[in-house]
């Protein structure tokens, strides 16, 4: 694949946006030096390492927001959104589906699951964040045949047009991957060190989502919330909740969100720590659509800037919904625009940005409890690529152009104007990482 190259424009100030991880507090200084150390020094240093650091990583001053692109030839490249520098990081081969947790790429091929570490990530501790970079590496194909993911299971997942075949989500220590009707839990710290270690597996409802938090993982199976520990055993005091027709979910700073037929389910894991142990108290709060909402109007997918506690999704009956995760409440965006994608991005005006079926970009901002249409453009971007997902920072949208030749950097706060663009010829799939 031709590497992504700068084409025009000026550099924006990428805001210090952060990605979600329900993390522990008590953080420390920069990554340690690599000089030989005594056992006592190593023990003391281990306590000083900030959460999320792994061997070989460097803590940096701001998030290294990047786009990981897979070309039609299967080549994977990583483009830094600060300066549009690009470099190759692996080969996806005949890829059929791609998902990310903002660091790792899960790539589904007929041969199996491939994992790629992009080497850029954020650890969010609520009142502050840590940002890291490390060498990117292709972790290769993962043999999951002993965990319910064989060739037949992969084929069934890829052949179901109504259900997204793949999802991935991570906490600081765990990574949950769903392929079709099977989910596996991986050791995220091992992944960061280049090793794939499967901790557990479990059945899930096809097309749903699996999240990792609080030392465990949560999923929907037989339309019921299931919360398991790292061994795959049910957590005894976990909440019980129903979620009919589950769709795609996501992790936010305020909790994990599962889409359901009547709205959503917000699941949280509140961590309490002592000198000897850390435990998580799990809770589930239903977030049904407001009374009077049209039947069948609940979103089947929600999107947002990484970690943001306000998320947006399309209503299958038209228009869109915005969910405030902290209080499990919805606001509607009533519009006749034929939207194919929508997501939330900034914190100051609670802006959401969408793309319609012609490729035009639209922007709404919250005002006094409702959303007001702020801006729209002529057809600019590929609606087919936008429908696979919109990529945003706190103040920018990145989308494949209508001719699929470039990535456009769009400023939603400035009438959805194009700030910069860079060549992206041959890019078939793009995922945002580093936030």
CATH fold annotation: Methylamine Dehydrogenase, Chain H
Helix content class? under 10%
**Which word captures the global form?**
globular
CATH architecture: 7 Propeller
What are the segments in which pLDDT stays under 50 over at least 5 consecutive residues? Answer: 1-26, 28-48
CATH class: Mainly Beta
Report the sheet with the most strands, covering strand number, pairing sense and barrel closure. 5 strands, antiparallel
Blueprint (SSEs and pairs):
Blueprint: E1 5-9, H1 39-48, E2 58-60, E3 66-71, E4 75-80, E5 86-91, E6 97-100, E7 104-109, E8 112-117, E9 120-124, E10 129-133, E11 137-142, H2 151-159, E12 166-170, E13 174-179, E14 182-187, H3 188-192, E15 198-203, E16 211-213, E17 216-221, E18 224-228, E19 250-252, E20 255-260, E21 263-273, E22 278-288, E23 310-314, E24 320-324, E25 329-333, E26 339-344, E27 352-356, E28 361-367, E29 370-376, H4 383-387, E30 391-392, E31 397-400, E32 406-411, E33 417-423, E34 427-433
Antiparallel strand pairs: 1-33, 2-10, 3-4, 3-34, 4-5, 6-7, 7-8, 8-11, 9-10, 12-13, 13-14, 14-15, 16-17, 17-18, 19-20, 20-21, 21-22, 23-24, 24-25, 26-27, 27-28, 28-29, 30-31, 31-32, 32-33
Structure description:
The protein is mainly β and 435 residues long. It has helices spanning 39-48, 151-159, 188-192, 383-387, and strands spanning 5-9, 58-60, 66-71, 75-80, 86-91, 97-100, 104-109, 112-117, 120-124, 129-133, 137-142, 166-170, 174-179, 182-187, 198-203, 211-213, 216-221, 224-228, 250-252, 255-260, 263-273, 278-288, 310-314, 320-324, 329-333, 339-344, 352-356, 361-367, 370-376, 391-392, 397-400, 406-411, 417-423, 427-433. It has a five-stranded antiparallel β-sheet, with no helix packed on it. Strand 24 (320-324) and strand 25 (329-333) form a beta hairpin. The protein is globular, with a radius of gyration of 21 Å. The two termini are 24 Å apart.
């Amino acid at each position: 694949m031709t590497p992504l190259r700068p084409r025009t424009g000026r550099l924006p100030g990428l805001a210090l946006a952060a990605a979600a991880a329900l993390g522990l507090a008590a953080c420390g200084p920069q990554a340690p030096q690599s000089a030989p150390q005594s056992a006592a020094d190593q023990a003391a240093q281990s306590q000083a390492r900030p959460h999320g650091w792994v061997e070989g990583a460097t803590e940096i001053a701001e998030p290294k927001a990047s786009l990981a692109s897979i070309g039609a030839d299967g080549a994977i490249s990583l483009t830094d959104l600060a300066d549009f520098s690009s470099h190759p990081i692996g080969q996806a081969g005949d890829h059929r589906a791609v998902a990310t947790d903002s660091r790792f790429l899960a790539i589904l091929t007929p041969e199996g699951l491939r994992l790629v570490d992009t080497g850029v990530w954020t650890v969010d501790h609520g009142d502050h964040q840590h940002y890291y970079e490390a060498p990117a590496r292709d972790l290769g194909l993962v043999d999951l045949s002993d965990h319910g993911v064989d060739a037949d299971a992969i084929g069934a997942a890829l052949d179901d047009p109504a259900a997204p075949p793949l999802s991935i989500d991570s906490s600081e220590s765990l990574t949950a991957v769903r392929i079709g009707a099977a989910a596996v839990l991986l050791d995220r710290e091992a992944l960061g060190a280049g090793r794939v270690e499967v901790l557990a597996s479990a059945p899930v409802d096809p097309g749903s989502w699996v999240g990792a938090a609080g030392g465990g993982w949560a999923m929907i199976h037989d339309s019921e919330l299931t919360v398991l520990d790292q061994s795959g055993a049910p957590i005894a005091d976990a909440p019980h909740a129903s979620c009919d027709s589950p769709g795609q979910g996501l992790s936010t700073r305020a909790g994990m969100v599962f889409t359901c037929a009547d709205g959503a389910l917000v699941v949280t894991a509140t961590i309490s720590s002592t000198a000897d142990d850390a435990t998580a108290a799990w809770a589930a709060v239903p977030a049904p659509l407001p009374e009077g909402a049209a039947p069948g109007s609940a979103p089947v997918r929600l999107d947002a800037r990484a970690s943001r506690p306000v998320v947006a999704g399309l209503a299958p009956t038209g228009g869109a919904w915005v969910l405030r995760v902290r209080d499990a409440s919805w606001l509607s965006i009533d519009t006749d625009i034929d939207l194919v994608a929508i997501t939330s991005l900034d914190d100051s005006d609670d802006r959401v940005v969408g793309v319609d079926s012609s490729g035009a970009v639209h922007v709404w901002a919250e005002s006094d409890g409702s959303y007001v249409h702020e801006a729209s453009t002529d057809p600019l971007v590929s609606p087919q690529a936008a429908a696979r997902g919109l990529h945003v920072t706190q103040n920018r949208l990145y989308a494949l152009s209508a001719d699929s030749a470039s990535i456009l950097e769009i400023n939603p706060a400035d009438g959805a104007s194009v700030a910069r663009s860079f060549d992206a010829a041959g890019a078939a799939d793009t995922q945002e990482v580093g936030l």
